[in-house]
Amino acid sequence: MTFRTERFAPHELSIDAFLGGALQIAQPVKGYRAGVDPVLLAASVCARAGQRVLELGCGGGVASLCLGARVAGLVQQGIEVQPAYAALAQQNARANGIALEVTCGDLTDLSEPLRSRQFDHIIANPPYFDRSRSIAAADLGRETGLGETTPLSAWIVVAAKRLAPKGQAHFVQRVDRLPEILSTLRARLGSIEVQPLSARAGRAPHLVLVRAKKDGRADFILHAPIVVHRGAAHGENAKDYNLLIEAVLRQGAALPFGGTA
């Protein structure tokens, strides 16, 4: 697969507000664009100042920057396979005054500096779609963000290897990939928790947040779903987020597992 090696030109980018405007993030007009999923992922991470965080497949840096905006004093790193997106993540970090060191590379072939480090938290929003059962996107940047080339299990294996003792791995993924996630996690990490996300009350969950701990021994927990939107269908305000989700997306609040809206 061939990736862009140059940076995005200014006319190829839009500046999008996240966390109610607290973050101004440059994203490609055409290509992979982050939505609410990495924001929810970042909100679910129970990090503290001084802890080390690695994001696998950081794209333009949205998840890491949302986490850094909520928790000051983190030591954050990201790895991204596409050079233009890696450069964009670094640009976004500088523009928002958040420390984030980004490495361009393949997460399955980490550089020696990354292989020698351990992290208190590892976060990832792996591609959602198994392309053996779906159609690839025309834009390469978007396809790399959404279409699986590195197996989902490999993301989990890498995260488990790089975690410090008692460190936590955090993932957001489509609910249909949950069995695959659990089967890989159980052999490597413990204290697994799953937080389903449902679009509306009465609907089956469409996404899951998953976290697990190195050397964790607590029982598996499947939390009740968090409902993202109010009402049974879209109203005049198509987003109509529930209060908890609104606080996460607009005010940079935390998203506790087991939280209610």
Would you give an account of this structure?
The protein has 261 residues and is of the alpha/beta class. It has a domain at 10-188: Rossmann fold, CATH 3.40.50.150. It is built from eight helices and eleven strands. It has helices at residues 37-43, 62-70, 83-96, 112-115, 140-146, 152-162, 178-185, 243-251; strands at residues 13-18, 23-28, 52-56, 75-80, 101-104, 119-124, 163-174, 190-198, 207-213, 221-222, 226-227. The strands form two sheets. Strands 3, 4, 5, 6, 7, 8, 9, 10 and 11 form a nine-stranded mixed β-sheet that branches. Strand 8 (190-198) and strand 9 (207-213) form a beta hairpin. Helix 1 (37-43) packs parallel to helix 2 and helix 6 packs parallel to helix 7. The radius of gyration is 17 Å and the shape is globular. The termini are far apart.
Annotate the secondary structure layout:
Blueprint: E1 13-18, E2 23-28, H1 37-43, E3 52-56, H2 62-70, E4 75-80, H3 83-96, E5 101-104, H4 112-115, E6 119-124, H5 140-146, H6 152-162, E7 163-174, H7 178-185, E8 190-198, E9 207-213, E10 221-222, E11 226-227, H8 243-251
Helix pairs in contact: 1-2, 6-7
Low-confidence stretches: 141-146
Count of extended strands: 11
Q: What share of residues are in beta strands?
A: 15-25%
Q: How far apart, in Å, are the first and last alpha carbons?
A: 42 Å
Task: Output the radius of gyration.
Answer: 17 Å
Annotated CATH architecture of the domain at 10-188? 3-Layer(aba) Sandwich
Helix/sheet category: alpha/beta
Cα shape: globular
Largest beta-sheet details:
9 strands, mixed
Tally of separate helices: 8
Order of helices and strands: EEHEHEHEHEHHEHEEEEH
What is the highest CATH level, the class of the domain at 10-188?
Alpha Beta
Helicity, in percent? 25-40%
Task: Compute the average pLDDT.
Answer: 90
CATH overall fold name of the domain at 10-188: Rossmann fold
